[in-house]
Amino acid sequence: MTVAEQRTWVPAMVPWRATEDGFVTPEVLDWYARFAEGRPGVLVVEATGIRDIPSGPLLRIGDDRFIPGLRRLVELVRDRSEGHTRLFIQAIDFVAVRRRPAPAAFFGRYLAIDDALRARVAEALGEARWRSAPEPDVRAALAGAPRPVIERVLTPRDLEALDYGYRERIWDMHLPHIRALPDVLPGLFAQAGRRAREAGFDGIELHYAHAYTMASFLSRLNTRDDGYGGTREGRVRLPLEVVRAVRACVGDDYTVGIRYLGEEVVEGGSDVDDAAWFGVRFAAAGVDYLSVSKGGRFEDAKQPKVGEAVYPYTGRSGHECMPTVISDERGPFGRNVPLAAAIRRAVRAAGHETPVVTSGGIATFDQAEAILARGDADAVAAARQTLADPDWFRKIRLGLGEQVRRCEFTNYCEGLDQHHKQVTCKLWDREWTPDDSTVRLASDGRRRLTAPPWTPPYPRPRPRSRAATAPRRSRRASGSGPA
Ligand SMILES: Cc1cc2nc3c(=O)[nH]c(=O)nc-3n(C[C@H](O)[C@H](O)[C@H](O)COP(=O)(O)O)c2cc1C
Ligand code: SF4
Predict the structure, then answer these.
(1) Phi, psi values for residue 49, rounded to 5°
(2) Is the four-CA dihedral 71, 72, 73, 78 of positive or negative sign?
(3) Which residues sit with their C-beta closer than 6 Å to ligand 2?
(4) What Å distances lie between residue 289 and 175, 201, 254, 362, 405, CA to CA?
(5) 358 DSSP β-pair partners
(6) If you take atom 16 of ligand 1, which residue's CA is the nearest one?
(7) Is 236 in the pocket of ligand 1 (CB under 6 A)?
């Protein structure tokens, strides 16, 4: 298994820089090269699709033709981190989410008109003729109907499709491809693991968190009746089958980690007791690490504008996933740590040494060091702080904590992510003037595409006298030492 040099970790962040066909681009390479320069112990490549299907500018690992690009990425990270950073790739599956339709398109094309709907229209409008009216007439009547009528005649799922856009659930057992998920997913994840290994990654991270397929299997909301839902045993069954399939494919000497939720933070969703129980099962199954996140579900997401897709980080569960300075008086700092700590305690009590990674509002050395010292987690992950300053781990190690560009946790970057725009940090632009033509810009031409460069003053050539070493020692002793 992979050994990380430091307990510092950059969790997955989608930067929307792949091609529309899911290939690595020069912009993807720049993004990871820049993080590698900060030399975190572990860097996790963004959520990468395990299927070979159109998914916008999201990386894909669903076919062997993606391996050469991914291999270039691995080589570049090795080179830029000078071999100090271990590189994992996060593998994701998701089910369909469509944009919120214009009402005319919804009633004109998307809504299925069946006998049950006709009967409800007849009842709501008080006219029996709607039971046998031609379909175009029913569509036209609904398109012009007042909202209370619409609310009476549409099923809750159809009303949701109108107001938020159509969204599949993994418990939609009437859909053959959803029913078949337990048959296809172990193989798809296993092949992704094989490709990750062939490309040279140090490990694969199975994305069981947030709003996506595998998190939904673990969810208490999962009502599948085929043995893959309902009870905890049922909900964890497919996630464990996927682990076993991946392990069988990549071998025992390869790192297989899981990122999953310590708490869903939605009504009726899984809580930390479920997460601790799952964590023990994952550890017993031989998973090499557990990376704990929180929330980020669709269930409480805000209504999107017409033409946009629902975004799982807009409701309360989303704010818990990427907390901001305006979340509440507690602010963003370390608010997910207790979940990791509870999972770690349960895993240790069951006799497993599986490392637990925590993330969410971690942005200072003291905070990270305290988490490790208390034994709340085995590694500290920082997403937005590392986006704000990819060199922050290195600056701290060198005793240059005062040079760290501090994340403001106001989620400008998340707003870009929401609209699938190239993700950048607003702080980068403070070190740039529009007349500087040497700086590479995002496709809108208005912001830096990568973090400003930074040249470490250390290590310097070997000092000639004792006196030359003194300043460095004193800076190290000032409290910003290695994590
Ligand atoms: C732009 C952006 C993209 C993200 N993409 C992913 C992702 O692909 N996979 C994932 O598990 N988490 C993703 N996250 C969540 C982060 O990994 C992390 O859990 C979250 O931002 C909280 O940590 P922080 O407070 O250190 O930012 C993303 C976060 C941001 C800001
Ligand atoms: S854009 Fe804001 S929240 Fe995002 S990394 Fe930069 S400072 Fe932090």
Answers:
(1) -70, 135
(2) positive
(3) 384, 387-388, 407-413, 425-427
(4) 34, 16, 12, 19, 29
(5) 292, 380
(6) 383
(7) no
pLDDT value at position 66? 98
Residue whose CB lies within 8 A of the most ligand 1 atoms, among 9, 10, 14, for a mutation test: 14
Contacts of 146 (CB under 8 A, 6+ apart): none
What is the position in ligand 2's atom list of the atom closest to the CA of 424?
Answer: 1
User: Which residue owns the Cα nearest ligand 2 atom 6?
Assistant: 425
Q: How many angstroms separate the CA atoms of 202 and 87, rounded?
A: 5
Which two three-digit tokens encode residue 33?
């090269």
Structure tokens at 436: 């500087």
Q: What are the Cα distances from residue 470, in Å, to 279, 366, 401, 465?
A: 47, 24, 18, 10
How remote is the CA of residue 107 from the centroid of ligand 1, in Å?
36
Q: For a pocket test of ligand 2, which of 327, 333, 385, 411 has the largest count of ligand atoms closer than 8 A to its C-beta?
A: 411
Residue minimizing CA distance to atom 29 of ligand 1: 13
Ligand 2: centre distance to CA 76 (Å): 25
State residue 361 phi and psi, 5-degree precision: 65, 35
Residues of the chain with confidence (pLDDT) below 70: 1, 459-483
Homologous superfamily in CATH for domain 8-97+175-431: Aldolase class I (3.20.20.70)
Q: Is the peptide bond before 459 cis (omega within 30 degrees of 0)?
A: yes
| Helices 67-80, 181-199: crossing angle, 10 deg rounding | 50
β 42-49/289-293 pair status: unpaired
Phi, psi of 453 (to 5 degrees): -70, 155
Domain positions in the chain are: 8-97+175-431, 103-164
How far is residue 94 CA from its own chain's centroid?
A: 12
Ligand 2 centre from 429 Cα, in Å? 11
Distance 346 CA to ligand 2 centre (A): 33
- In this prediction, residue 329 carries a pLDDT of 80
What single-letter DSSP state applies at residue 91? E
| 271: its two tokens | 């809580």
Task: Give helix 26-37 / helix 67-80 axis angle, nearest 10°.
Answer: 30
Can you tell me which atom of ligand 1 is nearest the CA of 363? 26
Give residue for tokens 């993807």: 28
pLDDT at residue 482, as a whole number:
27
| Exposure on the CB side of residue 483, measured as CA atoms within 13 A | 31
